[in-house]
Amino acid sequence: MENEMPWLNSVSPEQFIQNTKKFNDLMMMYRCTVREIRTKLEVLDDEFSATYKRNPISSIKSRIKSPISIYNKLKKLGYEFNEENIRTKLHDVAGVRVICSFINDIYAIAKLLSDQDDITVVEIRDYIKNPKPNGYRSYHMIVDIPVFFSSGKTMMRAEIQIRTIGMDFWASLEHQLRYKQGIENLDNYEEISNELLECAQNVIRTDNHMQMIKDMIGTFNDI
User: Fold this and answer.
1) Which end of the chain, N or C, is less surrounded by CB atoms within 10 Å?
2) What span, in angstroms and rounded, lies between the C-alpha atoms of 159 and 52?
3) What share of the chain is helix, strand, coil (3-state, %, to 5)?
4) Cα separation of 111 and 124, whole Å?
5) Alpha-carbon gap, residue 20 to 205, rounded angstroms
6) Cα 111 off chain centre by
């Protein structure tokens, strides 16, 4: 079984206890960060449900990176595994994924989050207007948000991904097929990649078509 904490192999018992406590405390802070963001999103969705009679957010998913994922990413970037590097070098320890119904909803939700005076947008990557070569599309925001603990306010960082149902469907299945099955070693890897890209393009066409139909119906239910 793979060691979940390889960075602790060479430390003393005292260091083990101290490092483990620091790590657990930090993960608690990231879990609270996710709850803060989810609450903001749920409030927005409830408001629009009451005002516009529809929910722009289909679902919200969240996760905290596992210890081994954090360790491996820091190692890949050339940094030691410690609290400071986790806080300052990694942007996606806490992640929230927002699934929207329509493309326009993505940008509306992103703007509403950006406009909140306690959220600082650190970085935006728009993979909808500029998809990745493999066909991946999503709107990524790196944000800093205040979380209030007994010791006071702490600014925490998180990644928010906003995408349509179609984008999420494709990304989830593509990840399973490409990374879980090890298709890079297959002789027909290029052919499989082309097929996955074609599926992504079909999703793009469907997303655009559904947005067009919504626009034809009218703007009464726009955000």
Assistant:
1) N
2) 28
3) 55, 20, 25
4) 11
5) 48
6) 16
Q: Tell me whether residue 10 is exposed, middle or buried, using C-beta atoms within 10 angstroms of its C-beta: 0 to 12, 13 to 18, 19 or more.
A: exposed
* pLDDT, average across residues 189-200: 91
pTM score, whole prediction: 0.86
| Amino acid at position 220, single letter | F
CA distances from 102 to 25, 99, 182, 207, 211 (A): 38, 9, 32, 7, 6
CATH topology of domain 8-217: Beta Polymerase; domain 2 (3.30.460)
Give the chain's largest Cα–Cα span: 67
Bridge partners of residue 143, in order along the sequence: 121, 158
If DSSP codes are grouped into helix, strand and coil, which group holds residue 194? helix
Helix (H, G, I), strand (E, B) or coil at 125: strand
77-86 confidence digits (pLDDT tens): 999 888 889 9
Crossing angle for the helix pair 103-114 and 189-217, to the nearest 10 degrees: 80
The structural domains of the chain, with segments of one domain joined by +, span 8-217
Instruction: Identify the CA nearest to 52 among candidates 110, 96, 108, 119.
Output: 108
Residue 70 burial by CB count (10 A; 0-12/13-18/19+): exposed, middle or buried?
buried
Contacts (Cβ under 8 Å, ≥6 apart) of 41: 57, 60, 96, 98, 109, 113
Alpha-carbon distance of 201 to 94, in angstroms, equals 30
Query: Average pLDDT, whole number, for the chain?
Result: 88
